[in-house]
Amino acid sequence: MSIQEFDRRAVRDSVDVVAAVTIDDLDRPTPCAGWTVADLLAHMTVQHHGFAAAARGTGADLEVWKVRPLGDDAVQLYTKAAEDVLAAFAEDGVLERGFTLPEFAPRGLVFPARQAIGFHFIDYLVHAWDVARSIGADYRPDPELVEAAWPIALAVPDDERRTRPGAAFQPGLPVDDETPGFDRVLAVLGRTPGWTPSA
Q1: Predicted local confidence at residue 153, as pLDDT
Q2: Roughly what angle, to the nearest 10 degrees, separates helices 74-89 and 37-55?
Q3: What angle do CA 106, 53, 3 make, to 5 degrees?
Q4: pTM for the complete prediction?
Q5: Whole domain around residue 53: which residue ranges?
Q6: What is the number of domains present in the chain?
């Protein structure tokens, strides 16, 4: 299966999860330290737009990466952004392009398309779980997605960038052979698999 298909499935799952968010949920805490559901959806939405721009050759424009409050239209705006990035990733020749991702490499490094889409895939696999946990919904991705995500999760640098304000991932937590597959992905990206809003 292609990285685009893995990503498409993860994004579709995230759309389904986000569809259950209500206005009353927007102020709920999330597994992302200091972020409410509204903050998380704003982040997820702008990242879709940023990656779509990168796929189309305009990722260096910092304006497309600027986070903006979504207000009461958060679910609708998120869904629209998801459709935008999936359309961009499905364009002919996209895998032959380089992606400029200033939030990942501010000095202008251009990433190969498969690697960049892999970044996007892992982000939305985990953020779908973030949203689900925040609103008390159940979310367990397909084992195929978990298997594809594991090497990508291990490749995410676990350094001082994870301790900065607004970091999408926190420092990794210990895992062992007894840790279930998706819980392992969550833990190495700094998530506590048993997290709840009251924790």
Answers
A1: 94
A2: 20
A3: 90
A4: 0.93
A5: 3-188
A6: 1
